[in-house]
Amino acid sequence: MREQLEALRDEALQLVNQASTQKELNDVRIKYLGKKGPITEVLRGMGKLSAEERPVVGEIANAVRGVIQTELEQRLVDVKQQEMDAKLALEAIDVTLPGRPKQVGQAHLLQQVTDEIEDIFMGLGYTIAEGPEVEQDLFNFEMLNLPKDHPARDMQDSFYITDEILMRTHTSPVQARTMLASKGEPIRILCPGKVYRRDEDDATHSHQFMQVEGLVVGEDISMADLKGTLEAFVKQMFGEAREIRLRPSFFPFTEPSVEVDVSCFKCGGKGCNICKQTGWIEILGAGMVHPHVLEMAEYDSTKMSGFAFGMGIERIAMLKYGVDDIRHFYTNDVRFSEQF
């Protein structure tokens, strides 16, 4: 029995030393130390031995098992290290090779212009306010002095979802919501975002476009404050040489209302094809907040006043960067975007 166990030990140790993978070592362990292995069979058959042979054979069998187990564990450590070394060699990174350049993108032109407008007005003390694009008729029209039967609604032919829910036609609902939430306190906000109108899609119109509106409400706010604010914006946006002029107009939510023109960037006011020989380019609408709008938002119109203005971001971008077709902004043509 001693010779048989020692032969099994030598055979197992030889296979352990020859093993080069963890799988091969596991196979040796199962073959010699598993439940059906020869050493286990020897231990199970000890009942057939005499009382004198039993402790001797048991001691030898356990010693052989211990030697094989120890060698397996030591060899496993070596094999794992060899496998790791081989893997590292295979996956080694040559730090002397040039790196793979990443393609760096940039903000869309409309986002660039929006950010620039926001920076200018935040520098003037404004905060950014946002609201839902799916809006209630109450905030989109009624609280802006546009009741359901008002003819001025025809100028903003709308996408209605229900009789009372629509895609907002301007960002003015954000102004109404902010005034209500302000509980009669002064505010100075800028409201950028997407708006929607059932319009013809051509070189200068789109059914969905970007708009930014501003609103200031406080004591002793005047038309002079409005003009000074817009002059500061125009000079920062288009250059110090630019001038503005105000022309009377009509908006239901402001009184008085004005259209704002900027002196032509190309001809400097002399007249050209860009300004249609007038020397001026219309860029936005503005006016003093209508007292009725203030009162609906729970402001005391005898003490508080304000001004509002609104402009299309696409129009500002087209004028500043010479874009001749509004549809370029939405075709996702990388060749167009890369120019800016």
Automatic annotation (TrEMBL):
Its cofactor is Mg(2+). Mg(2+) binds at E255. Binds 2 magnesium ions per tetramer. It is an enzyme of class 6 (ligase). GO terms for molecular function: ligase activity. Its EC number is 6.1.1.20. It is found in: Cytoplasm. Keywords: Aminoacyl-tRNA synthetase, ATP-binding, Cytoplasm, Ligase, Magnesium, Metal-binding, Nucleotide-binding, Protein biosynthesis. The keyword Ligase applies. It comes from the Bacteria. Residues 109-319 form the Aminoacyl-transfer RNA synthetases class-II family profile domain. It catalyses: tRNA(Phe) + L-phenylalanine + ATP = L-phenylalanyl-tRNA(Phe) + AMP + diphosphate + H(+). Tetramer of two alpha and two beta subunits. HAMAP family: Phe_tRNA_synth_alpha1. PANTHER family: PHENYLALANINE--TRNA LIGASE, MITOCHONDRIAL, PHENYLALANYL-TRNA SYNTHETASE. Belongs to the class-II aminoacyl-tRNA synthetase family. Phe-tRNA synthetase alpha subunit type 1 subfamily. This is Phenylalanine--tRNA ligase alpha subunit. It comes from Exiguobacterium undae.
